[in-house]
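INTERNAL AUDIT FORM
Audit reference: QA-55
Scope: verify that the stored structure record matches its stored sequence.
Auditor: D.O.
Record contents follow.
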Amino acid sequence: MTIRSMTGFAQVRGQAGRELSFTLSLKSVNHRFLDLHFRMPSDSDALEMKLRRLLKEKLARGHVELSLNLERAGSDGLELNKRVVGGYVQAFRAAASEFGLAAEPDLNAALRLPGALEASVAAADGAWEGCVLSKAETALEELNRMRDEEGRDIERELRDRMTHIQRASKDVQRHRQAVLQSQLERLKSRLQELIGAQVDPERLLQEAAMLVDRSDIQEELVRLDTHVARFEALLDQGGEVGKKLDFLLQEMNREANTLLSKTTGLAGETLKITELGLAVKSEIEKAREQVQNIE
């Protein structure tokens, strides 16, 4: 099972009898939850409910817009959308009164408004709903094909990011001993400055070693590698894993921040760890941009 993007588009055309045809389009973009929006002809509430159930069965997350436009052969099925035209007339007269103009609404302009004239659903053969639902399933299949294809591209990108993070983690591990030595020398020098030569050298080294141990970055590296392994396992699992992947990236970012804070102010070879830590944070941020679009 592959991961799926939340971005896609599909459009289908259908025919219900000789006089009624329709165009149904689906557009989806990323969203935290499943957010459905419909643009339907008037008198189609029952059909909207059926389409809503269908979309919920096939989609898990995303902002999804469904548009259905009816087209009739001839004009017998056209109806005036009183809400749209009435709103135009009221707004026109309110503006004329506000500015003291002597003018009347233009009916031709009103009828050119989107949705001013609609093909009446009630006038259509009752079988048209079945045709729309059938085509909606076709559109959903096409939409999900596009989302699957983009999901595969995102997966490849994310696997590359995880590989880069693993390499950086291994490089940090190679420099870890230098970090420990640098911290030990710095602490030793500082303690000698504070307490002079009266302290037992062995005791001094023991105290310094304890402080260095608390500043060790080994735990962060282990947790970072664990998060990367879990991330890749979720990619292998596929399905609805977007939120879990995003959470793991937040945890990786926390480990990278801690690693950088523990190595702040160190010089010499240990400066390489700062560069690697920043590189890890960059890879995590790039991965998060991609994960935001996964279902």
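Auditor finding: record pair retrieved intact. The radius of gyration is 32 Å.
Action required: none
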